[in-house]
Every structure is written in structure tokens, then in C-alpha cells.
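hiii, so i know i said id send this last week but things got crazy w the move. better late than never?? heres the sequnce for the chain we talked about at the cafe, plus the structure i predicted for it. fair warning i was half asleep when i ran it
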Amino acid sequence: MRSPTRRTLLTAAAALPAVTLAAAPATAAASGVEVVSPWKPITLTGAAKPFADAPPQARVVRVAGTDFLQLRGGAHVSYTSDSPLGTLPAGLPVPKLTRGLCPRNNHNGLSVCRVEADIRGTLIVLGGTSASTITWVRLDGFSSVLS
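okay and structure toks below
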């Protein structure tokens, strides 16, 4: 059996749901996945309200020497333009702009929006318009390369 390549591991990590590592940390460690920073709450801005059963959180994991920012949870919002959602917890540095797609309310056939984390740690939700208001965003599945 051949050893997996770095590219294969990174592809698998990008597809790895954030909840998988939370459910089985021992299995994750054995597979070469390291939790660099555990789940920490995201500070919401403006009128954003966290989901009662899944408040927004962030963490960093390392797979094959590459760090990934992972998000989970969600928030109720009312965005008609690109808007800040919140701020990443202290201690989760973002060395470059990183982005991913996240589920949102389905309106006019649009069911995803782009979420970006900038170098200041600000999370921004992009894609809302007056004709297609974003009323909620779910961060589960966001996994983006940091380094």
C-alpha cells in the first residue's frame, strides 16, 4: 500500500467536516490530524443572533503540516449587502484572507453565500442584496487553508 501524498491529505482535510474531529479526537490524532486550537466562540457583531443550539465557533487544525481554519454553528442575520458577522477569538491568527462557502436561507435560488476571514480576524458574509436578503448563515463545513 502506498503512503498518501500531501496533496491527497490536503484534499481529504478540505472535505473533512469540522464535527468529525470533535467526535473522535483520538482517531483524528492517529490519522495525522492535530487540533492546534480548540473550539472557541466567535464574537458576533451588529444584530446577528447565534443559533440557540449551535452558536458560532472557530478552531484551527493541522493536517500534513498545513493549518486549516474551521468554523461551525450559525447565526440569524438580516444582510442586504456584504456585512461583518463577527470576530474570530483571540489567538486564532489569520495570516492571509481566507474564504469559503456556507449555507444560507434559500431565496431566489440562492442557497449559499461566501464567508471571508481577513487578517484582522473579521468574518464577513458576502452576497446579500435587497432582492435576496440573507436571513441566516450556517458555518458548519467551513474549512479553509491558513498556511
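btw The mean pLDDT is 86. thought thatd interest u
miss u guys!!
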